Amino acid sequence: MSTDTVEFVDDPSRDDRSRPADVSPALYNTDLAPTKREGRRWSAYNIFTLWANDVHSLGNYSFAIGLFALGLGGWQILLALVLGAVFLFLLLTLSGFMGEKTGVPFPVMSRIAFGIRGAQIPALIRGGVAIAWFGIQTYLASVVFRVLIIAIIPSASSLDDNSFLGLSTLGWIAFLILWVVQVIIVSYGMEMIRKYEAFAGPVILITMIALAIWMLSNAGWTISWTTPDSLTGGDMWLKIVGGASLWVAIYGTFVLNFCDFTRNAKSKGSIVRGNFFGIPLNMLVFGAIVIILAGAQFRIDGRIIDSPAEIVEEIPNTFLLVLACLALLILTVAVNMMANFVAPIYALNNLFPRHLNFRRAAFISAVIGLVILPWNLYDSPAVINYFLGGLGAVLGPLFGIIMADYWLVRRSKVNVKHVFSVNANGDYFYTQGVNMRAALALLVTAAFALVVAFVPAFDSVADFSWFIGAGLGAIVYLLVADRKGPFTDADGEEIAVASTH
Q1: CA 112 to CA 466: how far, in whole Å?
Q2: Which fold has domain 34-495?
Q3: Cα–chain center distance at 189
Q4: Which of 275, 408, 428, 339 is nearest to 130 (CA)?
Q5: What pLDDT digit, counting tens, does each position of 28-62 carry?
Q6: Which of 94, 418, 468, 499 makes the best surface tag, with the fewest CB within 10 Å?
Q7: What is the end-to-end Cα distance of the chain in Å, rounded?
Q8: 119 CB-side CA count, 13 A
Q9: Quick one: pLDDT at residue 384?
């Protein structure tokens, strides 16, 4: 069958005559379809720049500097980050290979383990977390943008004194400008995201290294490697391992939907090289910058900063302050699009493939991220801890189930065409489209993960909740999974579309 007819499905208003006859319109459009191997453009450099941006996010700096405040010294922080980086390299490489082989995004990948209809469960959990954090991260970026605006136009500070729905006039201006910029970039699809990430990666690396050098010079080219409250002995090692585990948990969302990006990867080698330079090596640079920023500030005035944004605000030269703020804005937009914008786009596409495409789903996701008034969510500990924290706790079991099914049960054998079929004899139809075994494993392990996350009696192992959830998810699923097969291995080239759609 010719694949030329597939290209027209990108417009959901077209009739079903342009769709391949053996796939369901309830499961397929060109955003969900597998990508052709020929013409894939994501190289090792593109994978690397994903991590060059994401690793150096303001949230990650706040987390790593927080380890300094919790009593870890320079080398202990570096060790925690390296241990976490090794785990992440392995997990993300395995996850990335799934996307490279099948060419499909995460919601479609989830159909393999959960069934063609059961896949809505992991897709909506991942998408729901992402939409909330998209709004929150846009708000946090707008705070930096307000500093930039006031630095350029001091009189604009008068617009920062009132409040409407929780934001000042200047706050609304800054938020909406950044909101519109992100919507415009994402509306041009994954190819534009690839180009933006490639541009932003070097910018933020150069900026953070320059900021570290500047702080080092202010501290007389020496830093404090520890604080007076530094941990020793068993407590120190427990905090190091706990820090490494939390570092992995931060990426608990991204290890799930890494295939959204690697479905466009040129080869497995591109993924391995991009991950290697972007995770272990890049995190060594990140760790060195963290130690310099935190140690230099402590050497200067005995204060432990919360984020590099605090240092930027104190830059005395207006021109350099503006450049630093612009770099942080470029970074935050890059991280937000990669970690929090792409996932809900594919989740919504998976819900309504007949009616949505990438651009329409992007706009809907952005609108939801706006109307939830994310600054109010961010200021509510109950929402962050119980709602977003609860959803986040479920991501570990989801990852364990999906990875165990793909690598251990099926041995990476996937019939790609069948993930788009509603035929009752299809490989992923299961029971009315739901794999009840996977659903049961998720129900049991998600309940346990929530208990570990929220019950005070488990505080001692809370740092390891993602690993506990992922491990239990894999074990329980392997106990109940149907391993008899046979499992068919067939690519989706016949129904594939160009990876630049």
Answers
A1: 22
A2: Hydantoin permease (1.10.4160)
A3: 17
A4: 339
A5: 999 999 999 999 999 999 999 999 999 988 888 88
A6: 94
A7: 20
A8: 30
A9: 66
